User: Fold this.
Amino acid sequence: MKLKVGVLISGRGSNLQALIDACAATDFPAEITLVISNKADAYGLERARAAGIPTTIINHKDFPDREAFDRAMDSELRAAGVQLICLAGFMRLLSPWFAEEWRDRLINIHPSLLPKFKGLNTHEAAIAADEKTHGATVHFVRPELDDGPIILQASVPVLADDTPETLAARVLEQEHIIYPRAVRLYAEGRVNVIDEKVFIAS
Ligand code: GRF
Assistant:
């Protein structure tokens, strides 16, 4: 039985595409059973539809508060039998309730070498800080933004003539490699969280 994955998106969905492509391999131990977007015009929805994956749009503006929105997503995810949630460019903060409900079954990809450069505009920040190395992180989600045990990271050089765009493109290539890799490890039951640190079984 493949692990059932739900992916939450808000936009472009290139990481979603990387997961879709990985799941297309018969020996990949996970399958995407639902994609939820909070934006009706997210391009990632088209990627999901093209792959024949069920999609749901849940507009956060239709709910009185963050938790009510999260509870609506929770119902859909449970109805789809989701066992692992992947945030992939999902631009909403999650409520503490949701983060606890899905604790250690909820992961995110962030475009920096956490704990450096949490939040938005990470590539600008890395260049401004004169970093020589930058990268991406897959981590478990905790209620605090861009916090939580780190599963995988990939680093890239920051070149002297980099713009935020050129650096973002270099990082994104790595994101598309490590996100499917992290999902595979998780689906194989090899990712263990002990005292808020990840141990990967060989
Ligand atoms: C990626 O850079 C990801 O790390 C960040 O948001 C961006 C989403 O891009 N969380 P995409 O929608 O997957 O193309």
About this structure: The helical segments are 14-23, 43-50, 66-79, 96-101, 122-128, 164-187.
